[in-house]
Amino acid sequence: MFMRLGVYYVYLLLVWGVFRYWVRLPEVIEELWFKPIIWLVPLFWWRVSLGGKPKLFNNKWFLSGGLGVLVGIFYFGLFKIMGFAGQMNWGLNLLGIALVTAVVEELTFSGFVLGLMDNLVMVGLMVVGVHLPINIFVYGVGGRELLGVVVWLFSVAVINGWIRQKTGNVTGSIIARFMLMLAVL
């Protein structure tokens, strides 16, 4: 199981990292069309090969959603206080990017990977790792700014993973990430 997870993670690092580095399509196309295919199709086939239903959602919808909204408000407020919030000119493209990014990344890490590993620190490190190539090579982030990005990504991954662990439902993690994405965009 962990060998397959390692192969999937290396695949994700290489394929998504190379795709984001070499392919220069509008972000809305990359995030709305290619990200779900690159990230989720291999997970779907892996899940089919394991048999059974994935345990991403359970009956604690209200608790999960409530924690997701509370954490999302915290993220939103923190970005506003720190002055990093986006312009809040949310059009359909930005809302789509925020939603698809939240769903794909949280299903992958808070849902599938955390469900297999049950280790928040490792999942947090994996989230940081998958985001490093784009931050370094595409956005040119370095030095102190890169350290801040690493700490932030790790913290978000651990907090969102905790919501999933606490409730057994990935819905809250998706809501929290969606609200974070809205704050950033």
Description:
The chain is mostly helical and 185 residues long. The chain has one domain. 82% of the residues lie in helices and 0% in strands. The protein has 7 helices and no strands. The protein is globular, with a radius of gyration of 16 Å. The relative contact order is 0.19. The mean pLDDT is 88.
Helix proportion: over 70%
- Globally, the shape reads globular
Quaternary state reads single chain
Overall number of strands: 0
Question: What is the N-to-C order of secondary-structure elements (H for helix, E for strand)?
Answer: HHHHHHH
> Number of helical segments?
7
Strand content: under 5%
Secondary-structure-based class equals mainly alpha
Low-confidence stretches: none
Q: Could you describe the largest sheet, including whether it forms a barrel?
A: none
What is the rounded Rg?
A: 16 Å
Tell me the distance between the termini. 36 Å
Number of domains: 1
Mean of residue pLDDT values? 88
